[in-house]
Design goal:
This protein is mainly alpha-helical. It is 76% helix and 0% strand. The chain is built from 9 helices and no strands. Helix 8 (136-152) runs antiparallel to helix 9 (157-168). 28% of the residues are buried.
C-alpha cells in the first residue's frame, strides 16, 4: 500500500463521499484510511478522534451552506428566479439528504442543520416578502417542499410548481 500524506481538506472530502455512500457509519478512521490508501495515523494527525472529525465535517458543511446563502443574497434578479435557483441548489445537494438522515440520531448534526435551516428560512422568507407574501406559513411550506422533495426524487419540478402557485396568489 502506497502511503501518502493527506491534508485535513482531503480527509473532509473523503468524509463527505463516505457520508453519501454509507451514512454516518462510514465516518470512521479505518475505512476512510483504506479508501484513501493511507494509514489511520494520518487521520489522527489531523483529528483527535472520530468525534472531532465528525465535528469538522459538520463545521465545513455548515460554513458552506451559510456561504451559499450569502452568495445568493448578493445575486441580482427577480425574486422568483432566485427562489427557483436556490431550490435547485438544495435539490441537487446529496450532502443535504445525507446530513438530514444523520441528524435524526446525532445531536451535533441536528444542531448544525437547525442553524442552517433557520438562516435558510430567513432568506426564503425575504424572497417571499419580495413576492408580496408575508405569511411565514408560505415560507415554511416552500422550505418543507425543498427538504421533502429532495428525499422524494431529487427533482425540482414540484418546487417550481409551488413557486408558480405562490406567484398566482399575488
Amino acid at each position: 500500500m502506497t502511503k501518502q500524506r493527506l491534508n485535513k481538506d482531503k480527509w473532509i472530502a473523503a468524509g463527505f463521499v463516505a457520508l453519501h455512500r454509507d451514512g454516518p457509519d462510514g465516518l470512521r478512521a479505518e475505512p476512510l484510511a483504506r479508501e484513501l490508501n493511507t494509514t489511520k495515523g494520518s487521520f489522527y494527525w489531523h483529528f483527535a478522534d472520530v468525534v472531532a472529525f465528525q465535528s469538522a465535517l459538520l463545521d465545513h458543511w455548515q460554513a458552506d451552506a451559510l456561504k451559499a446563502i450569502v452568495q445568493e443574497l448578493e445575486t441580482a434578479g427577480p425574486a422568483d428566479e432566485r427562489l427557483r435557483r436556490y431550490g435547485r441548489l438544495l435539490y441537487n445537494d446529496k450532502t443535504e439528504r445525507a446530513l438530514r438522515a444523520w441528524a435524526t440520531h446525532d445531536a451535533k448534526a441536528e444542531a448544525a442543520l437547525n442553524t442552517v435551516d433557520s438562516e435558510r428560512l430567513v432568506y426564503i422568507g425575504s424572497l417571499m416578502g419580495q413576492l408580496g407574501l408575508s405569511n411565514p406559513a408560505f415560507t415554511e411550506a416552500a422550505y418543507s417542499s425543498l427538504i421533502g422533495g429532495g428525499f422524494l426524487n431529487g427533482e425540482s419540478e414540484g418546487f417550481d410548481a409551488l413557486v408558480d402557485v405562490v406567484l398566482a396568489l399575488q
